[in-house]
Amino acid sequence: MNDKVSNVVPARAGLEAQQAELADRIARNVPGDGLHDSAVPGLALIRASEPSQPLPTVYHPSVCVVVQGRKRALLGDDVYAYDPLNYLVVSMTLPMVGQIIEASPEKPYLCLRIDIDPALIGDLLVQLGPAVPAQPSGERALFVARTSASLLDAVLRLVRLLDTPDEAAVLAPLALREIHYRVLVGELGQKLRELCEVDGPSQRIARAIELLKTRYAEPLRIDDLAMAAHMSASSLHQRFKAATAMSPLQFQKQLRLQEARRLMLMDGLEAASAGHRVGYESPSQFSREYRRLFGAPPKREIEAMRAAGT
């Protein structure tokens, strides 16, 4: 056996050992299926004991590391599969479709989500200095990259701190900083560099997205967004669609429908009230567009969600 092959076996065994410990610790720290915030700010743990149907949702800037099972995210016509070998990075807020495709009661889907801190990314970039030119990574605001032992090591140290809350207050920020660093210097970390490039195209699109998030219920013209992003209307439309796979108005519509769904599911609002709250003047239009996104009229879909305990 040559040196190259002999080095691969211990490396793979090391990754498997890290993932096994992570799976055990996540399973011990969640009460059941679902998404659970942890005692460490910015860290959430996710468990599912069976595959799911495709579910429209809003992903926020984050790093998603799967330690058991498999999931995919669909953005437009693009499919991003992530599993114990590959982690997902979402660099901007994106409405898309998520689906757990590998999970069982014996081996549940286990994942952790770490919020991306732009201030921390910016601070690291000051230390790292100019980037070495990287190969083009596409224009989408998310990517899948190969999971490394060094990244898993930092993630494992962070998750271990859930058992020592007193130490977590001091050591968790250090582990989170290292995780951000590992992603930043990883194979596709250029995406995060672009997001922090002062007045660069990615940062301008991010500004337009923030405006849509804060004013999703208001009528917004493309010119308003272009002004906020300091871009021409045509350039904004082109770059926005390249990053998110949808136009700004389609993006706004999905934010509205997602918020209406939350209002009905969590706050108990009726469909007409929820639709009006998020900016729809026509109940029939709201019901039609809701059904198109979620697959059923508002009342029926929310009743199904409650019956399923989601």
UniProtKB/TrEMBL annotation:
Keywords: Transcription, Transcription regulation. InterPro entries: Homeodomain-like_sf, HTH_AraC, Tscrpt_reg_HTH_AraC_N. SMART domains: HTH_ARAC (SM00342). Residues 206-304 form the HTH araC/xylS-type domain. It holds the Pfam family HTH_18. PROSITE patterns: HTH_ARAC_FAMILY_2. PANTHER family: ARAC-FAMILY TRANSCRIPTIONAL REGULATOR, TRANSCRIPTIONAL REGULATORY PROTEIN. This is AraC family transcriptional regulator. It comes from Luteimonas galliterrae. The lineage of its organism: Bacteria, Pseudomonadati, Pseudomonadota, Gammaproteobacteria, Lysobacterales.
